[in-house]
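Supplementary notes for students who missed Thursday's class. We covered one full example, reproduced here. Read the sequence, then the structure, then the short commentary at the end.
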Amino acid sequence: LGALLQAMGLMKKDTRFVGKVDVSTRLSLRDDTLDVGETALHTADFIFHKDEQKFNEKNIHFTTRGSVDLKNKSATFKPVNLKTGMGDIAFSELVISDWGKLENAVKTDVTIDLDLEHLTAFLSDPLKLPVDTKVKGKAAIKLTIDLTGAQQQLVNLHGTIGPVEISLHNKLVVSEEMI
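Structure (token representation):
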């Protein structure tokens, strides 16, 4: 899968990932359109490497359906759901109008529900938190992105974190009901 993403220009050559993947999908090609039927990926023991950064996740469940226009390098997926130990991410629709120019080609609405303890463990390498730092709590995020406008682009973020507790060396440093 990594080689395919690299060949499509969606992933850089210095990026790699490993894990055990079970894939269930139904694909059909008609002219220059690839129809992606109900698709489910279950990944176990996932490890992602980029430069010196490393991310681990025990289980990842991904589901979607949509279509890919190979001629115009565009795709629409509706819905896209990602479930992991750190939380759930749900795209009501993901539209990519030109995957060769992603910075001007993405439109989506995303709902993200995160478990901060699992998220902190997942991001432990790049965050470089002090040893014995513990983060507990939940985060709920609503993200709207529209990068397709020639003159104006939109990124709208609404979120709440809480309750949240951060401790260092078993001493409570931060405790908030909601941020």
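Commentary. The mean pLDDT is 90. The beta strands are 15-24, 27-30, 33-50, 53-69, 74-84, 87-96, 106-115, 133-146, 154-168, 171-176. If anything here is unclear, bring it to office hours.
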